[in-house]
Automatic annotation (TrEMBL):
This is Domain found in IF2B/IF5-domain containing protein. Keywords: GTP-binding, Initiation factor, Nucleotide-binding, Protein biosynthesis. The gene is FGENESH: predicted gene_4.112. It comes from Rhodotorula toruloides. Gene3D superfamilies: 1.25.40.180, 2.20.25.350, 3.30.30.170. Residues 241-398 form the W2 domain.
Length: 401
């Protein structure tokens, strides 16, 4: 397979950082036409990044739907796109999400912090730089952080012809250091503070049954099961867990009164300062109706970055569905026809994926609104589900051809 310099602006034929030339293939016809990236997995391995990252980057830059299947290594961007254009976009991805900001070498590792910020740690020069969190792909990376590759996988990342020092490769002389680093990290992972244990138990799934016994002794036993020792009084439960709204409803009221005067970033800072941003699955059912009106489909773009940051778990995405029910079911029932358009915007911006939308449309719940209201809103989502199924059917038909 032909290779090129990872930095295509470097013309040196002896430049050691290489990657396969990105290939494209146009498939389908009409509305089902798409651009398949047959060797995206190989390109991504050379860049030491998951293949879904550049694929999603292409989709966001082109305003097109993108699909990724890591099992079959099939990566697709909807629409017909010129090969040169795709390679230019790949250069943009490399510049923003692969190269070190200091030495411009592609030996960086992406790290997602607990407060959901992304940094690029350069193994060549040691520089740690921030990744632009305003880009749509950053939200996707936060939700899908890179998995640490095994040593075997790293050595094979750039192919048999790779040169020592290439991204994703481990030199033999560094094995001892890597082994020591691994042991240190494994040891750190096993040490969980009492405060972290308290948060872990407090953030249990809403529908998970932890049993009837909530005595300090029983809580301490659950702590021991997690491999944590300490004072069980730290795990005294969340005072506002069972309140009807508590600080989340209060914050939503503040948002409703002040949203015209403050930015989305300021709303998040206020949520963080009040402590309600830590439990987004409790916040979103109140925040979503506070942010929007019956013109929600037109108002969504202003708050997409905020919603992307808050939907940091599957539970938070489900809670976002509850907020949609409250807004279009209770607050503005005459606007329920906007449900498919709202879901489409959230889908195109990687806030709700295909599975989340299908679950929303097919699982009536009385958790956030009355059951008949939930049924009406979710039934209104059927056109979106139909569109997803047709798109999937077109893809399968094209594959068969």
């Amino acid at each position: 397979m032909a290779t090129v310099n990872i930095r295509r602006d470097v013309k040196d034929s002896f430049y050691r950082y290489k990657m396969p030339v990105l290939l494209t293939k146009i498939e389908g016809r009409g509305n089902g036409i798409k651009t398949v990236l047959p060797n995206m997995a190989d390109v991504a391995r050379a860049l030491n990044r998951p293949a879904s990252y550049p694929t999603k980057y292409f989709g966001s830059e082109l305003g097109a739907q993108s699909t990724c299947n890591d099992d079959t290594e099939r990566y697709i961007v909807n629409g017909a796109h010129d090969q040169n254009r795709m390679r230019e976009l790949l250069d943009g991805f490399i510049d923003k999400f692969v190269l070190c900001q200091s030495c411009k070498n592609p030996e960086t590792e992406l790290i997602v912090s607990k407060d959901e910020y992304i940094t690029a740690d350069c193994k060549a020069c040691g520089h740690v730089g921030d990744i632009d969190m305003r880009h749509k792909l950053s939200g996707y990376i936060v939700k899908n952080p890179p998995k640490k590759a095994s040593k075997k996988g790293k050595k094979g990342a750039a192919g048999a012809d790779s040169i020592a020092g290439q991204p994703g490769q481990v030199d033999d002389e560094d094995d001892d250091q890597d082994e020591l680093t691994r042991k240190i990290r494994e040891g750190a992972a096993e040490v969980m503070s009492e405060e972290q244990a308290a948060k872990l138990i407090a953030q249990r799934e809403a529908d998970e049954d932890w049993g009837e016994d909530t005595s300090p002794e029983a809580v301490a036993a659950r702590m021991a099961a997690l491999g944590v020792s300490g004072d069980s009084s730290l795990l005294a439960g969340d005072d506002d867990d069972e309140e009807a709204g508590g600080p989340y409803a209060e914050f939503a009221t503040w948002v409703k009164e002040n949203k015209d005067e403050v930015s989305a970033a300021e709303i998040y800072k206020e949520a963080d300062s009040r402590g309600v941003a830590k439990k987004t699955h409790r916040l979103l059912p109140y925040l979503f109706p506070a942010l929007f009106t019956d013109k929600v489909a037109d108002e969504l773009p202003k708050y997409l970055a905020l919603l992307a940051k808050l939907t940091n778990s599957d539970k938070a995405v489900k809670a976002l569905g509850g907020g949609i029910e409250k807004l279009l079911g209770d607050d503005y029932p005459d606007a329920v026809a906007q449900t498919p358009k709202v879901l489409m915007v959230l889908y195109q911006n990687d806030i709700m994926d295909e599975d989340a939308i299908k679950h929303f449309a097919t699982h009536v719940s009385k958790k956030y609104v009355a059951k008949d209201v939930s049924k009406r809103v979710r039934k209104a989502a059927e056109p979106m589900v139909k569109w997803l199924e047709e798109a999937e059917s077109d893809e399968e038909e094209s594959d068969d051809e």
